[in-house]
Every structure is written in C-alpha cells, then in structure tokens.
Design a protein that fits this description.
By secondary structure, this protein is mostly helical. The chain has one domain (about 15-95): 434 Repressor (Amino-terminal Domain), CATH 1.10.260.40. About 60% of the residues lie in helices and about 0% in strands. It has helices spanning about 15-25, 30-35, 40-45, 55-65, 70-85, 90-95.
C-alpha cells in the first residue's frame, strides 16, 4: 500500500461519496439522502466539501454502507487536521514543545 505524500491534503469524505460511492451505487443524491434520513441539502453540503462529516452523519453513512462510522470520522479528521497544520503552520511553529522530566 502506498502512503500519501504529506504535502497532499487528505481527501474530504464528501469527495469519496461524490466520486466513488454514489456512482458505484448508481444512486441519486436525493435517494441516498432519503436512505440515511437527512435532507438533500445537508448531504449536498458534504458532497460539495462545504460541510464536514459529523459523528452523527458518520454513523448514518457507516450504517448504510456497512463500513462503520469510524471510517468516515477518520477521513474527516485527517482532512481537518492537515488543513489546520498547513493553515496555522507559522503559529504552531512558535509553540514550544514541552518534555516530561
């Protein structure tokens, strides 16, 4: 398994749903939203990568797709953490790391 380059941002879970999951299932956004009992607008926000996958949404996705909530939460966490580390790199660099004696 190849490792992702640290310079490349992890894929947003909405992109995975949009590019891989929905086409493979041959399912519309409306039908998918109905199956996980959320509004089409809420799902569209995730698919457009404007909104994050919350723990509740991860549970819904994991249940429908049979892969569990943690998969979706880890994807979102990796995406968010990478973004913060890159957006705030200068600020974080100024914070001294403490070591236990």
């Amino acid at each position: 398994m190849s490792q992702r380059s640290p310079a490349r941002q992890p894929t947003h879970p909405g992109a995975v749903l949009r590019e891989d999951v929905l086409p493979k299932l041959r399912m519309s956004v409306t039908e998918f939203a109905e199956r996980i009992d959320v509004s089409r607008q809420m799902l569209h926000g995730i698919l457009a990568e404007r909104n994050a996958v919350s723990p509740e949404m991860a549970a819904r996705l994991g249940k429908l797709l049979g892969n569990g909530a943690s998969v979706w939460l880890r994807m979102q966490q990796a995406h968010d953490l990478w973004q913060i580390e890159h957006d705030k790199a200068k600020e974080l660099a100024r914070i001294q790391t403490l070591t236990a004696a």
